[in-house]
């Protein structure tokens, strides 16, 4: 991006000649550019494949290996080329990055090989273009997860670290039954008792032939009540012991108590204790019987043993809105058809459609194509509407089911992708902040152009805050004071122009680069001002101007420390001479790369 | 009579087509879109020798300029929108569309709505390597929006407003409406010698050549390439 726009800068600067006749104040002098030599071809020999490109292309990104003097280490004198003993296929993409400004990730390449090449050539992966970034991040995540899984598997097979406390061992045994034989035994025993308990609940209600050959049949539970009671007690004791052990072993007890599994455990064993506590009172026995229903929740304890159940539960939870909408539309249809059927059947005698809620049952049974036959319409209108109801029932019920199924996978993946993208965006921004990829020459020229614009219109760029304050204050400062204050405010303004640029388009410009540039040109400006308008500036205001540049420096220092510094450049010769010739060196070599946060 | 019957027939056919489409289940949008003709404009400049003759640039400079240009605009021409976008990048704080439009019209000599490389590089050579007379002519051409040889107060106001728009809102001191008019007044006071309310090219170039500041500032971009 920077490369492409930089090509237009000469046009924009030439067009600035159009401002000259209308300018109210004289223009700042142009920045001195170091005379670069002829733009030559560079030959890059990567393991035998020769690549050639212009020197300027490589120097667009001066903080990578190829763009900086680091490549001199790889210069091969005999063949007069730069030799790299790396993968030529991946190098092609890296070279394309210099040419087009966009880094692409080839899908057929191995992610770790690609990462290594990028690290070697000093390119940060966060600048991969949007077209390939998601793929790159996905592959990277898979790779790290695979590595982590491998490590975990190895770890679990290895000896446990001996300094794990008993509590941690127990928790580990509960969570991964495969770690030790004891854990496995415990796992199977609890599973067995869950099954036994559920079976007992079911068999309890089966009618058994009573011994006395009475006419009334009793259920097995009432016949063998003692046996069932003993079985129940045994199961509940085991469940209680398991729950207490898990509670003790949990690393965070509060989190454990809040988790779904522990709630299921509690609900599974509570009815027994409540039944024990309550006496055989006639009033509460009804409620007690209801509580027995909760014993069926023991079957949910199987979800610890089955990952599939957990996944199902999660997908149901994530598709709750879709299911809710389906229910809502069904309810609408039911109400409509029930009303219609009720009014259609109102006339007929001995009609079962006594009220609209009564017709709900008919509608539901018909729409789901069950058709029990306990309620049938008798009038002709009723039959017509009944047939319409059953036809539309097929549409209303049968259609959304595959839609919901596909919605499951779509929503599941979508939410995962949205989370992924959010995380990727955050890390991408953080990573891009560390990247400094602008040409310093381009920066100085761009700033000179903006400065010319300021001079043409005789207004300066300021920060948004200063703009607000200036709006509120009445500007009754003297001309010299305003000029000197405007001098100090201009660097902030110009820095803000480029920082705001960041927010609009992804055009990263380091802050201090600009500030350093401003410092240089302010010195130039101050000298010119002194030469041309000695009458306007009193001595005190001149001193004030220079004094204000000093706190400027300290302000800049605080600017720099507030942000992230990535690559310090080699120290520069002192810029104290102040002559215009030295300023460009000062500008370009004292650049501490600071992120535009 | 027959036209009415024809119309009825057409509507009937359309109706049956609609029903048929409904039954067969084809979507409306699938077969109604014809293939969009994608017109690509490709334009390439004349040869290098010709351009060397027409401009003051050396061969290497022309090569460098064209390489950068071609990288940005592979089709070989710049249209107004691209121009506006480029200017939006250079002047991010303000609204550069009006100024970019004026500039585009100034560059576009043959008024065909797109800038070719020759037009750009010829103007560039005038601006960077041309004589003062040529530069002033170019500036006059820019200000003269309707290209009638005279700059009126309204044209100047438009131009200056667009330049002030480049700055954006966060400027100090705050931009007042009167400031732009004042600027126009100052300009006309300086340039309009015979006070007839318009500035002609002769008045313009005479005044500019007398003004030291303007002469100096015309030279500052001479080494921009």
TrEMBL record, chain B:
<keyword id="KW-1003">Cell membrane</keyword>
<keyword id="KW-0851">Voltage-gated channel</keyword>
<keyword id="KW-0633">Potassium transport</keyword>
<keyword id="KW-0576">Peroxisome</keyword>
<keyword id="KW-0449">Lipoprotein</keyword>
<dbReference type="InterPro" id="IPR018247">
    <property type="entry name" value="EF_Hand_1_Ca_BS"/>
</dbReference>
<keyword id="KW-0106">Calcium</keyword>
<dbReference type="InterPro" id="IPR028846">
    <property type="entry name" value="Recoverin"/>
</dbReference>
<keyword id="KW-0963">Cytoplasm</keyword>
<dbReference type="InterPro" id="IPR002048">
    <property type="entry name" value="EF_hand_dom"/>
</dbReference>
<dbReference type="GO" id="GO:0005777">
    <property type="term" value="C:peroxisome"/>
</dbReference>
<protein>
    <recommendedName>
        <fullName>Kv channel-interacting protein 4</fullName>
    </recommendedName>
</protein>
<dbReference type="GO" id="GO:0008076">
    <property type="term" value="C:voltage-gated potassium channel complex"/>
</dbReference>
<keyword id="KW-0677">Repeat</keyword>
<dbReference type="GO" id="GO:0005267">
    <property type="term" value="F:potassium channel activity"/>
</dbReference>
<keyword id="KW-0630">Potassium</keyword>
<keyword id="KW-0407">Ion channel</keyword>
<dbReference type="Pfam" id="PF13499">
    <property type="entry name" value="EF-hand_7"/>
</dbReference>
<dbReference type="GO" id="GO:0015459">
    <property type="term" value="F:potassium channel regulator activity"/>
</dbReference>
<feature type="domain" description="EF-hand">
    <location>
        <begin position="95"/>
        <end position="130"/>
    </location>
</feature>
<keyword id="KW-0406">Ion transport</keyword>
<keyword id="KW-0813">Transport</keyword>
<keyword id="KW-0519">Myristate</keyword>
<keyword id="KW-0597">Phosphoprotein</keyword>
<comment type="similarity">
    <text>Belongs to the recoverin family.</text>
</comment>
<keyword id="KW-0479">Metal-binding</keyword>
<feature type="domain" description="EF-hand">
    <location>
        <begin position="131"/>
        <end position="166"/>
    </location>
</feature>
<dbReference type="InterPro" id="IPR011992">
    <property type="entry name" value="EF-hand-dom_pair"/>
</dbReference>
<dbReference type="Pfam" id="PF13833">
    <property type="entry name" value="EF-hand_8"/>
</dbReference>
<keyword id="KW-0631">Potassium channel</keyword>
<dbReference type="GO" id="GO:0005509">
    <property type="term" value="F:calcium ion binding"/>
</dbReference>
<comment type="function">
    <text>May be involved in the calcium-dependent regulation of rhodopsin phosphorylation. Binds three calcium ions.</text>
</comment>
<feature type="domain" description="EF-hand">
    <location>
        <begin position="179"/>
        <end position="214"/>
    </location>
</feature>
<keyword id="KW-0472">Membrane</keyword>
<dbReference type="GO" id="GO:1901379">
    <property type="term" value="P:regulation of potassium ion transmembrane transport"/>
</dbReference>
């Amino acid at each position: 991006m920077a490369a492409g726009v930089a090509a237009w800068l000469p046009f924009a600067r030439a067009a600035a000649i159009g401002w000259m006749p209308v300018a109210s104040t004289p223009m700042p002098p142009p920045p001195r550019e170091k005379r670069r030599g002829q733009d030559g071809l560079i030959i890059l020999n990567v393991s035998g494949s020769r690549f050639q490109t212009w020197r300027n292309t490589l120097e667009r990104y001066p903080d990578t290996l190829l763009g900086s003097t680091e490549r001199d280490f790889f210069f091969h004198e005999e063949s007069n080329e730069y030799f790299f003993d790396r993968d030529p296929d991946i190098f092609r993409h890296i070279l394309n990055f210099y040419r087009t400004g966009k880094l692409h990730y080839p899908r057929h390449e191995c992610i770790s090989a690609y990462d290594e090449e990028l690290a070697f050539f000093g390119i940060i992966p966060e600048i991969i273009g949007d077209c390939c970034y998601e793929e790159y991040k996905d592959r990277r995540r898979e790779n790290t997860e695979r590595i982590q899984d491998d490590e975990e598997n190895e770890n679990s097979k290895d000896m446990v670290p001996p300094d794990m406390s008993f509590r941690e061992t127990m928790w580990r045994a509960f969570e991964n039954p495969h770690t030790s034989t004891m854990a496995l035994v415990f796992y199977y025993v609890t599973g067995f008792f869950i099954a036994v308990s559920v079976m007992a609940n079911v068999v309890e209600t089966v009618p058994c032939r009573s011994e006395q050959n009475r006419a009334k049949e009793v259920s097995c539970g009432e016949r063998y009540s003692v046996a069932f009671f003993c079985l129940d007690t045994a199961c509940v004791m085991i469940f209680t012991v398991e729950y207490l052990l898990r509670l003790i072993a949990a690393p965070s007890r509060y989190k454990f108590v809040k988790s779904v599994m522990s709630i299921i455990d509690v609900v599974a064993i509570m009815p027994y204790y409540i039944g024990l506590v309550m006496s055989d009172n006639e009033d509460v026995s009804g409620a007690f019987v209801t509580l027995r229903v909760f014993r069926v929740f023991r079957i949910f304890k199987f979800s610890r043993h089955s990952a599939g159940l957990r996944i199902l539960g999660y997908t149901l939870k994530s598709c709750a809105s879709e299911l809710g909408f389906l229910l809502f539309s069904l309810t609408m249809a039911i109400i409509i058809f029930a009303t219609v059927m009720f009014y259609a059947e109102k006339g007929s005698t001995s009609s079962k459609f006594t009220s609209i809620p009564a017709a709900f049952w008919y509608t539901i049974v018909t729409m789901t194509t069950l058709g029990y036959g306990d309620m049938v319409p008798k009038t002709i209108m009723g039959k017509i509407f009944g047939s319409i109801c059953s036809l539309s029932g097929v549409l209303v019920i049968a259609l959304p089911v595959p839609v919901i199924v596909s919605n499951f996978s779509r929503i599941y993946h979508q939410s995962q992708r949205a989370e992924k993208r959010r995380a990727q965006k955050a890390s991408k921004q953080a990573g891009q902040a560390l990247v400094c990829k602008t040409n310093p020459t381009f920066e100085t020229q761009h700033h000179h152009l903006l400065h010319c614009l300021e001079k043409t219109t005789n207004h300066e760029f300021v920060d948004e805050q200063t703009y607000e304050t200036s709006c509120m204050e009445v500007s009754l400062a003297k001309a010299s004071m305003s000029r000197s204050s405007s001098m100090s405010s201009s660097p902030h303004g110009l820095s803000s122009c480029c920082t705001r640029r960041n927010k609009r388009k992804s055009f990263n410009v380091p802050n201090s680069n600009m500030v350093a540039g401003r410092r240089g040109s302010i010195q130039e400006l101050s000298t010119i001002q002194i030469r041309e308008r000695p009458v306007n500036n009193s001595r005190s205001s001149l001193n004030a101007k220079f004094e204000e540049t000093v706190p400027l420096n300290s302000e800049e220092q605080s600017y720099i420390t507030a942000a992230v510094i990535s690559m310090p450049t080699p120290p520069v010769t002192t810029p104290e001479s102040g002559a215009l010739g030295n300023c460009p060196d000062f500008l370009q070599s004292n650049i501490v790369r600071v992120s535009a946060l | 009579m027959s036209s009415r019957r024809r119309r009825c027939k057409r509507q009937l056919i359309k109706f049956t087509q609609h029903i048929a489409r409904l039954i067969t289940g084809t979507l409306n949008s699938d077969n109604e879109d014809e293939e969009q003709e994608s017109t690509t404009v490709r334009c390439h400049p004349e040869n290098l020798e010709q351009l060397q003759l027409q401009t003051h640039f050396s061969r290497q400079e022309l090569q460098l300029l064209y390489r950068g240009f071609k990288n940005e605009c592979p089709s070989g021409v710049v249209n107004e929108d691209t121009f506006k976008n480029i200017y939006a990048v250079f002047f991010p704080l303000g609204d550069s569309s009006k100024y970019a439009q004026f500039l585009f019209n100034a560059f576009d000599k043959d008024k065909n709505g797109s800038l070719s490389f020759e037009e750009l590089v010829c103007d560039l050579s005038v601006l960077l390597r041309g004589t003062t007379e040529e530069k002033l002519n170019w500036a006059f051409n820019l200000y003269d929006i309707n290209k009638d040889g005279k700059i009126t107060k309204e044209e100047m106001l438009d131009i200056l407003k667009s330049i002030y728009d480049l700055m954006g809102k966060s400027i100090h001191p705050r931009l007042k409406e009167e400031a732009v008019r004042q600027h126009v007044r100052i300009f006309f006071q300086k340039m309009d010698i015979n006070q007839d309310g318009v500035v002609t090219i002769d008045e313009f170039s005479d005044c500019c050549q007398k003004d030291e500041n303007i002469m100096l500032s015309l030279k500052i971009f001479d080494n921009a390439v």
